[in-house]
Structures are given as structure tokens and as C-alpha cells.
Amino acid sequence: RSSPLSRTNSVTMTEQVHRGIPEAEFIEDVESFLKKYDGNCESAMKKQNELYGKYKFLENSLIGQKANLVNKLPEIKKTLALVTRLTQAQDEGEKTIQTTYQLSDNCFAKAEVTPNNVVYLWLGANIMVEYSYEEARELLSTQEQNCEKTLAELTEDCLFLKDQITTTEVSILIIDHLFHFASSYLP
Q1: Which of 48, 61, 63, 51 is CA-nearest to residue 2?
Q2: What is the pLDDT of residues 37-71, one digit of tens each?
């Protein structure tokens, strides 16, 4: 998985990378840090601001991905529960089961369903595929596990990224403070 943050010319980052997200360097020694920029505070500030912008962009992207998964997971769970209920009804020899399904955001309808070992699942892009109950359960279980795993990874990435944003903000403040301090002593 590639990262939108470019590693080229990124002298402000250490070599540690978290799932494609480079770790921001904390400025412990300002003088040695500025030597990387020939002592130029403006160049250092520009690089830190650039890095900050990239981190914020990536953070927004990860938050969007996470929101999509948070919305998708309940649908997968509901569909899996329904397929499990249909399987149970078929195994117990029930002729029909009563269920409620969603027509639109606030509109639901009741239905009688005859268990017949066939369900149709939306895959996206206006594609619906026929599955047996067992195939549908396997597919939905796999999707649920993948969704939960990805959600956990995105949460971890967001936390790591938040630390990098904070570190970069502190670096910007340190450089800004040094720049204003140094410029106040210039003739």
C-alpha cells in the first residue's frame, strides 16, 4: 500500500515508517536541525508546513475511509443475520418467514420470504449476484472480518498520524519562535 506522502527530499523525517506513513522528526537540537537547511529558518519552516499539509490531507483521507467502513459494517452484519435466519428457517422446515426490509432511508416494508437456499446480494455498481445460503454466509463473514480488520488498522493509522501532526506542529512552533527570536536581534 503506497503512501501519498512522498519520501523524496524529506530530510525532516526519520527512517521509521508506519504502514506507509513516515514518522515526523522531533526537533531536539535546533542548531543541528537547521544545519540541514544551511541555517535558513524560512526553508525549514517551508518544509515543515509542507509536511504538515501532507499529513492533514492524509488524515482527511483516512477519516473518510473510516467513515465509509463504519457505515458499511452494520449493513454487512444485518445481511449476514438475515441469511443466517433464512438458513435456520430452511433447516427447521418453515414454509415462510416474516421480515422487514428497507425501501429507502425512512421507509420500511414487511415481506413474507420462502426459504429456498438462494439469496441475491448487491455487490455494488448496480450488480446483483445469486448465492446459495452457504456461499452468502461465507462471503459476508469474510467481508465482515475484512471490514473490522481494516477499521482497526485505520483507527491505528489515524492515531499514529495524529501524533505526527502534533510533532510537526511543535516543530513549526519551535522554528517560528527561533525565527522571531533571531530576527528581533538583527540590526
Answers
A1: 61
A2: 888 888 889 999 999 999 999 999 999 999 999 99
Q: pTM of the predicted model, to two decimals?
A: 0.75
Q: Rounded to 5 degrees, what are φ and ψ at 123?
A: -100, -10
DSSP, collapsed to helix, strand or coil, labels residue 40 as coil
pLDDT at 5: 46
172 Cβ contact partners less than 8 Å away, ≥ 6 residues apart:
45, 48, 49, 52
Nearest C-alpha neighbor of 172 from the set 6, 56, 81, 79: 56
Residue with cell 504538515: 52
Region label for 124, one of left (φ > 0), alpha (ψ between -120 and 50) or beta (otherwise): left
C-alpha to C-alpha distances, 97 to 7, 58, 103, 112, 119, nearest whole angstrom: 57, 47, 18, 6, 14
Which stretches of the chain drop beneath a pLDDT of 70? 1-17, 182-187
Per the structure block, which three cell numbers stand in for 23? 514518522
